[in-house]
Amino acid sequence: MNWYALFVHTGSEEVIRKYLHMYLGTSIRVLVPKRKVPEKKSGIFEACTKKVFPGYVLIQVNMTAETYHLICSIPHIIKMLGTNASCTPIPDHEMTTLLNLINPEDIIDYSTVYMENTKVVVLDGPLMGHEGIIKKIDRHTRRAKIWLHLTGNDKPRLVDLGVEILYAKQEK
């Protein structure tokens, strides 16, 4: 079974998930990855959940012509990503990175990072062992920017993830 990306109307990702399970049952795995990020409201940081790829639903299915036409007939699905003639599977190494980051509820949770000058060490959380994909850490918004691929043909996307930052103690 391969992973595929569906381009859907933004905001209808959860409706598409229900339709896919209704039409295909247990023969499909549907993934709408979300991320937990801090947002400042009234001067206080609160955890907020947002979609990693708004307008996309990722599916793992054994694709046949019948399955393809059934999926394309579901309302709110614009198209399957790939060429006009066929859909292109997402490479396994790209999905492995994403699957390693999400928890069983399809959410990328906070990671705890330790910062000393420009050195970043991930102590805990989904980014542990994935320091190489961290592009930047914004101390003010408490977010890490990472590169994630959606399909082999697309350029990587810069995605914000929430982090808890620990600093080195200043010696006096």
What is the CATH topology assignment?
A: Alpha-Beta Plaits
- Per DSSP E runs of 2 or more residues, the count of β-strands stands at 12
Kindly provide the name of the CATH class: Alpha Beta
CATH superfamily: NusG, N-terminal domain
What oligomeric state best describes the polypeptide chains here? single chain
Q: What is the C-alpha radius of gyration, as a whole number of Å? A: 18 Å
Fraction of residues in helix? 10-25%
Unreliable spans: none
The helix-strand sequence is EHEEEEHEHEEEEEE
The fraction of residues assigned to DSSP E strands is: 35-45%
Could you give a quick summary of the protein structure above?
The chain is an alpha+beta fold. The chain has helices spanning 13-24, 65-72, 92-101, and strands at 2-8, 28-31, 34-41, 44-51, 56-61, 77-80, 107-108, 111-116, 119-124, 134-138, 143-148, 157-167. The strands form 3 sheets. A 5-stranded mixed β-sheet has the order 9-8-12-11-10.
